[in-house]
Each structure stands twice: as C-alpha cells, then as structure tokens.
Amino acid sequence: MAELKASIVLSAIDKATAPLKGLSRSAGGTQAALAKLGGQASRIGKRRGLRSEVGSLGSKLDVSRKQTAELGREFKKAVDPSEKLRKAFERSQRRTVELARAHKRQKGELRDLSASLRKAGVDTRRLDAEQARLDRTSERLQVKTPLGGMVIRETIFNRSDEYTQVKAGDRIYAGAVFMRIVDTSQMVVRATVNQVDAQTIRVGNRAVVELDAYPGLRFSGHVADMAALASARRGRRSSGRKFIRHIPVRILIEDKDKRILPGFSASADVTVSMGQRGVLVPREALRYEAGQQAGAFVRVAEGGEYRKRRIAVQGLSDTEALIRSGLELGEQVLLTRRPRDQRR
Q1: CA dihedral of residues 89, 95, 97, 98 (deg, nearest 10)
Q2: What are phi and psi of 115, to 5 degrees?
Q3: Residue 238 near residue 187, CB atoms below 8 Å
Q4: DSSP label at 341?
Q5: Cα 98 to Cα 88: distance, rounded to the nearest angstrom
C-alpha cells in the first residue's frame, strides 16, 4: 500500500513539472538557435573581411608581377647586368612568389568559408551583391578634394544647439560650410579697402603684411585680385545713414613661413602709385577751414610753438594724407590740439 501511494505521488509530481521541463527544452533550443545565428554572423563578418583582403592582396600581386616582368626585361637586355640590378630582380621574384602563395591560401580560405555558409543555408551570392551595393554607396558618399592642404573644421550648431566644431554624427544643412581645405603653400589675406582708396589700388601692387600674432614680423606680398562689387560693413556708419562701402581684396603672401596659420588676423600696407610726389603726414594732423579741403592747414613746429600753415592736399587714405605743397620733408606737425598756452 505504501508503494502504491509513493507511485501516485511521483506520477503527480512528474505531471506538475512537465510544463517546466518543456520550457527548459524550449529555452535550450532557443539558446542553441541564437548560438547558431551568432556563429553564422561571425562567419559572415569574417568572410566579408577575408574577401576584402583577397582583393587587396590581388592588387599587390598584380603590381609585383608587373615590376618583376619589367626588371626581367631589363636584366635580359643588359649585356653585363650590374649586381644591383640582379639583386633587385631576385627580390622582386621572391616577393611575387610570396604574394602568390598568400593570395592562393586566402582564396582557399574564402572558398571553404563560403561553402560552409552555403551548407548552413546562407546565400553567398546575395551577400556579394549586398557588399557591392554598399561599396558603391560608400564611393558616392566620399567627397574628394581637388587639391592637397590642411583640413580646417568649421564651427556649426549641432543637434543640441551648441556652437562647436563639426564632428561625426552631426547634421549638416544644405549650403552650410562645415570644412575648408587650405593650401598652406599659398596663404592669402582677405581684406577690404575703403571705396575712396579703391581707385588707387591695382592688381599686382606690392604689399607688406603683418600678423597680430607676431608683432614686428613682416611678410612680402602683392594684391592678387579685387572684387567687382563693394560691400557694406555692418555696424559702422558714415556721417550719414548709409553704410561705409568697402571693396574686398585678396593679398597673396609670397614669403613661406610655417608660423603663418589659417585664421590669423593680419593687416597690410599696399604700395600705390599716386602719379605725383609729395610729403606724407598722418591724416589726423589735417585741419580744415569752412569744412573744405581747399582750406586745409596744419600746425608746424616753429620757434618753440606750433604755427598755422596752409597746405595743398593731393590725396587721402584712411590713415595718411599726401601733401603736394606747403610742407617740407622733415618738418614736425601737430597731431593733437595745441597746448593751452599757445592757443590764440
């Protein structure tokens, strides 16, 4: 009777635990399936890398074979081949043989790997077609610069509305400048010239460039080109309501110096031909009567004081004035107001 009770209890326990056993078997099958898929994915990745290596090695083998053939022709053509030529030919032969063996070995590995994937139900032809499509897409996404130089990454607003340098993953909007290629062998200064002075400047005029980063350091250059249209500098107005107009110019720096880097601020003095000779003075030395240029005068140091002297102004720039008559070279002029004890 006890044995019958034990049999009934064991049977009940077996029925109660049957779903758990089935679940365990199911979980084990799922894990096995996942492991199988993981193995297939690993082999697919390995095949993709191996296929790329086979192509790269094949290209190297073709180049080596051409070099060996060319050296062989030179070796046969030479009546008395030099030791240097003989060693170069032998090295090229050995390299070609080594590359051919490695290429054959890799092709065999690729063939065996493809066969194992096909046996597992993976269509390798579709993999090759997909890889070719990815290669074409990657080729179209590559932007190749027509010139060599330094890559300068611009600052943009990223997805977080932060003003920072562009990086992988940022969204670039149409027309946005996010990168520049700078030819450091030909550095230029982008500057502007006041519209009043633009008529005196010509392409080819000599220039001296100074960098704010290196005070006192001067570089030779010339005016490379000038814009055909004037632009306005916002925020700076003349005496009226119109913006001051300026002409954009580019000055090519002829000196080669590694210290000149893109983005540096600079100033330039351009040598122009005025057609006449005269004396240059700072523009702030000029004084006017009745607001007319014809009534211009300067204060000249004479006998311990600054005396008024009328002059004829020939030309003006932003900083200097060319005096045609009324002032001699070497005379001292007053730049600010006269001392209080000399005012009359």
Answers
A1: 160
A2: -65, -40
A3: no
A4: G
A5: 15
Give the integer Cα–Cα distance in Å for 100 and 220.
57
Return the number of other C-beta atoms located less than 10 Å from residue 51's C-beta: 19
State both tokens at 338.
């006269």
Q: Which domains does the chain have, with CATH numbers?
A: 29-141 (no CATH), 151-181 (no CATH), 184-270 (2.40.30.170), 279-342 (2.40.420.20)
pTM of the entire structure?
A: 0.43
Q: How far apart are CA 253 and CA 189, in angstroms?
A: 7
State how far the Cα of 343 lies from the Cα of 337, in Å rounded to an integer. 9
Report residue 76 as tokens. Answer: 């046969």
Let me know: does 91 contact 35? Beta carbons within 8 Å: no
- In angstroms, the Cα distances linking 300 to 84, 160, 165, 176 are 82, 63, 55, 56
Contact residues for 282 (Cβ-Cβ < 8 A; gap 6+) = 319, 320, 321, 333, 335
What is the chain's pLDDT, residue by residue, as a tens digit (344 residues)? 545 555 554 455 455 455 544 544 444 444 554 454 445 556 677 777 888 888 888 888 999 999 999 888 888 888 888 888 888 889 999 999 999 999 999 888 888 877 877 776 666 677 677 667 766 777 777 778 887 888 888 888 777 777 788 887 777 778 888 888 888 888 899 998 888 778 788 888 999 999 999 998 999 999 999 988 887 765 444 444 456 788 899 999 999 888 888 889 999 988 876 556 788 889 888 888 765 545 788 999 988 888 889 888 887 777 888 888 888 888 999 987 655 555 55
φ, ψ of residue 170 to 5 degrees: the values are -75, 150
